[in-house]
Specification:
By secondary structure, the chain is an all-alpha fold. 39% of the residues lie in helices and 0% in strands. The longest helix is centred in the last third of the chain and has 15 residues.
């Protein structure tokens, strides 16, 4: 089980999902469960719920292949199928933030 930091999630990771529209309604994750990830909607944020949901998307055995990293990443940058690709590359500053949080939680 990863030892992911809640405070870092709230300050650095959850804002990424908000900026990128992942918590929007409709066909996004804030509109109810989409695949294996549900996020609280933008107008009714629940950081504890979101933390629990996102934590389930972290792979302890291979953190760089965690779904929370690969699904929103462009296919040509090593991503996996997902209808929306907010991260064009692994150099994207938001991707780097989420990846750092994942790695820190897996290596502790």
């Amino acid at each position: 089980m990863p030892n992911l930091d809640f405070a870092t999630f709230v300050s650095s990771v959850e804002p990424v999902f908000a900026r990128r529209g992942c918590d929007a309604g409709g066909d996004c994750h804030g509109g109810g469960i989409r695949g294996t990830l549900a996020l609280s909607p933008a107008g009714a944020k629940d950081a504890a719920f979101d933390f629990e949901q996102v934590s389930r998307q972290v792979s302890v055995s291979d953190p760089d292949q965690s779904p929370i990293l690969t699904r929103p990443l462009a296919i040509d940058a090593g991503g996996t199928p997902h209808p929306d690709k907010p991260f064009a590359s692994t150099a994207d500053s938001d991707f780097v933030s989420v990846r750092a949080w994942v790695r820190a939680g897996v290596t502790q």
